[in-house]
Amino acid sequence: MTTPPQSAPLRLDASRSLPWLLLLFAGSGCSALIYEIVWFQLLQLAIGSTTVSLGVLLATFMGGLCLGSIALPRLRALKQEHPLRVYAALELGIAICAILVLFGLPLINRVYFAGAEHGLPGMLLRGLISAVCLLPPTILMGASLPAIVRGIDSTPRGVSWWGLLYGANLGGAIFGTLFAGFYLLRIYNMATATYVAAAINVAVAVVSFVLAARAPSRAEESASSAAGISDQPVHAHDGDSANHLPIYIAIALSGAGALGAQVVWTRLMGMLLGSTVYVFSILLAVFLIGLAIGSAVASVLLRAVRPRLALGWCQFLLALGIAWTAYIIANSLPYWPVNPLLTISPWYMFQLDLVRCLWAILPPTILWGASFPLALAAVASPGQDPGRLVGAVYAANTFGAIVGALAVSLVLVPWIGTQQSQRVLLLLSAVSALVVLIPHVRESTSRAPRAWLAASMVLAGLLTWNVGPIPGELIAYGRRMPLQTGNSQILYTAEGRNSSAAIIQWNDGSLGLGVNGHVQASNITYDMKLQRMVGHLPALLHPNPQSILGIGFGAGVSAGTFTTYPSIQKITVCEIEPIIPPISTRFFPRENYAVMNNPRTRIVFDDARHYVLTTTETFDIIASDPLDVFAKGTAALYSREYFEAIKQRLNPGGIFTLYVPLYESDVRTVKSELATFFEAFPHGTVWANTIGGQGYDMVFMGQAEPLKIDLDEMQRRWESPDYAAAVESLLGVGVGSVIDLFSTYAGQPSDLGPWVQGAEINRDSDLRLQYLAGWGINSRLEDSIYREMLTYRRPPQNLFSGSPLLLNSLMSLLSSAPSDGQ
Q1: Residue with the larger pLDDT of the pair 578 and 821
Q2: What region does 237 belong to: left with phi over 0, alpha with psi -120 to 50, or beta?
Q3: Which pLDDT score is estimated for 15?
Q4: Cβ atoms within 10 A of the Cβ of 462, count?
């Protein structure tokens, strides 16, 4: 046996190894997506879930993949190593990095919180934290494909195998997305998910080491004869093979379009289907399904097409695909006669969601998936270093993806909206087609290619012009849009960096605020009562409130209640979306007392959790009215650790209130919310807001010390001129007396403790609540949950004090549970 020269790169006998390689790459893709979901969730707990924070995370993740794909092929020392051994080492490295991130993140978070700032310094620090956590493992991930393909010849058959490996990686990623979203994180937690993914990496590494020992590699010069391959380059005469720049530009533009479209369509489909963690898992899985199908089909057909020409026309077809999806989302799916409340079974609901996602998104994603192997084939020729070639194409595609995702999410959507952003993406695909096809047209002696190209560009222009706006009803009602047709009109819509908002006017003249497909606030009496209770309960009970923190602006009603108290000197409102306060001030000035323009008010635009954990200020009252808990990311504002952080931001005697809906929820979700709250606030209490005696939503109220309510003192304040504006505010929502207000009492740990015993505690390490809440979103149990709680409520003798007249009146109301229709 002849020993190959030391300078000759080693090659795999891929004809024998391909099935194993496909399986290994599927495992690698599975673990990568599990990690991605876990890491994003973990890091968002620290740096926040604003679009800027998510953009930093995404850029870091994709940037690591880009760096890895470029760096590994340039390491000459690895050329003499068996490709499978290099791949195995990379997989072990990924597993080790993942475990280090899991255990090291708490320490990193403490460092971040100690030095966190707002503005540019804060963004730079967020980027540094993300880089420390994500770059090491993602660089290794990005290096995995070049590491393996370096051992497969750059012949037509070899290039086809490259594409198949890429497709297998995507196939594994599909499974990883669904496995993590519907099982690992729903049943277990982020630590378990990390261990499972690391175990997959280790298994892949072990199998790779075994294959490396059993399937020795061979020298480059004997590669074709050993495999029995006599392929010639795929249409080597196709275009100018020396000029690959148009291919790299096209695949970069393709990556930019793919990730930019994913940003836009995830936002729009999230409104349409409901913004739960399960919907986002389905959306990501469908996107990956399309990429995997396209990659596999293109890889099989490579030798039957002219890759450069096929890549160009694939980009043009992408323009058609983007136009298709834009039309389906704006003009078709919202009007399907589908009642989302026909079943409470989440499995039936998710099947319908999957069908709608496939119908809307699959066509363009298949074409994006096909673009990668076509680009590889367009630049490949025998004798090239396969690892460097694949790494360069992958890096161009990934770099484009970074630019596209950041540009669309941080610039285009808040600047010109989703409609115009989709038009830009459509034109981007047309430009990508031109970049590839113009050299071919110039070389052709026939006029036909010029005519076809001109006609296709005209068609792309027409399709761009016809991209329609997203319906205002979709922004307002989301998945409930079919049930609301004809009941209202949309007065105003706006799209911001983090959210889309709509002002609704119902047929009876009442107004509502819809955010991301869900009605968040209205001036209907029962909504107004709840929003004002969030503010008035703590403000009346606190002896001298001066500084307030409001979490979430909404319609501004909760924050506005504090303007009625003359002792309050400073009202800070933390709101994640800058467009919300001006809209609410314009349409709800009477209900929110124009709190945005009050000289005592300061609005901070940030993720609430991030602000609470990084601010050094303390407050007398913190009133929280966040998005519904089933919305992806909101569960972080209901975790035990967050509640403990809230306690640390309260001054002595401070009070915290939290809005909690009973509608669109189930028993497990409410028990988890309450059990978690009581763990952090063992002296907490619960207050109910009902509609005609029927349970609807609640206010949780907590403080560090035991709560004592002196009804005589409350009555004195009620009658004091200093509280006249506050009393008028309460009278406006049907609360006619002190007894009316405190008769909403629904329990405390001493009586509700047995009811919540054994409930899942929502912790930062698992955020189980978002999975529970998303599972029960179609429940219609608000009244039965409320009545079940009342069966545990006992007369609160230790909570209230005062004159016999007031005490007896209150206890009389509390001793009789409301009856149906009361």
Answers
A1: 578
A2: alpha
A3: 63
A4: 10
Express each pLDDT in 329-358 by its tens digit: 999 999 998 887 788 888 889 999 999 999
| CA distances to 223, 443, 749, 802 from 796, in Å | 84, 88, 11, 13
The pLDDT-based confidence of 81 (bands split at 50, 70, 90) is confident
Confirm if 125 and 374 have CB atoms less than 8 A apart.
no
Spatial neighbors of 781 by CB under 8 A, at least 6 apart, are 662, 665, 666, 667
| Cα maximum dimension of the chain | 105
Phi first, then psi, for residue 349 (nearest 5°) are -65, -40
3-state secondary structure 241-278: CCCCHHHHHHHHHHHHHHHHHHHHHHHHHHHHHCCCHH
What homologous superfamily does CATH list for 523-815?
Answer: Vaccinia Virus protein VP39 (3.40.50.150)
What are the residues facing 522 on neighbouring strands?
Answer: 512
Question: How are beta strands 650-661 and 745-747 bridged, if at all?
Answer: unpaired
Question: What distances in angstroms separate CA 315 from CA 247, 308, 321, 329, 368, one per listed residue?
Answer: 11, 11, 10, 21, 8
CA distance 550 to 572: 6
CATH architecture of the domain 8-217 equals Up-down Bundle (1.20)
Q: What angle do CA 658, 661, 664 make, to 5 degrees?
A: 155
> Of 304 and 558, which is predicted with more confidence?
558
Backbone angles phi, psi at 109, to 5 degrees: -60, -40
pLDDT at position 53: 82
Cα gap 377→389, rounded to integer Å:
10
Q: Is the pLDDT of residue 175 over 90?
A: yes
Q: Where are the domains of the chain?
A: 8-217, 243-388+410-470, 472-515, 523-815
d(CA 377, CA 233): 9
Long-range contact set of residues 603-606: C-beta below 8 Å, sequence gap at least 24 = 603/553, 603/572, 603/573, 603/574, 603/575, 604/118, 604/572, 604/573, 604/574, 604/575, 605/574, 605/575, 605/576, 605/577, 605/578, 606/48, 606/50, 606/118, 606/574, 606/576
Q: How far is CA 569 from CA 555, 598, 820, in A?
A: 21, 11, 43
240: DSSP letter: -
> What are the backbone dihedrals phi and psi of residue 242, each rounded to the nearest 5 degrees, phi first?
-80, -15
In the numeric block, the tokens 């020269």 are attached to 5
Neighbour-count burial of 230, counting CB atoms closer than 10 A to its CB (0-12 exposed, 13-18 middle, 19+ buried) = exposed
The yes-or-no answer to whether 8-217 and 523-815 have a common fold is no
Task: Give 493's strand partners.
Answer: 502
Residue 754 burial class via C-beta count within 10 angstroms: exposed 0-12, middle 13-18, buried 19 and up: exposed
- Ramachandran region of residue 439, left (φ > 0), alpha (ψ -120 to 50) or beta? alpha
Residues for the chain: how many in total?
822
Nearest Cα to Cα of residue 324 among 428, 466, 472: 466
In this structure, of 107-121, 435-449, 594-608, the range with the lowest mean pLDDT score is: 107-121
Closest Cα partner for 33 from 277, 256, 284? 284
Query: Which carries the bigger pLDDT value, residue 459 or residue 53?
Result: 459
751 SS3 class: helix
Residue type, 69: S
- Tell me if 692 sits within 8 A of 822, measured CB to CB: yes
User: How distant, in Å, are the alpha carbons of 711, 730, 799 from that of 802?
Assistant: 5, 22, 11
Asked whether 794 and 751 are in contact (CB, 8 A), the reply is: yes
Per the model's pLDDT, the better-predicted residue between 246 and 226 turns out to be 246
Do the strands 745-747 and 218-219 form a parallel or antiparallel pair, or are they unpaired?
A: unpaired
b/e code 689-712 from CB counts within 10 Å (16+ = b) = bbbeebbbbbbbbbbbeebebebe
pLDDT of 816 over the 70 cut: yes
Is 126 or 297 the better-scoring residue by pLDDT? Answer: 297
Instruction: Calculate the average pLDDT of the chain.
Output: 90
pTM: 0.92
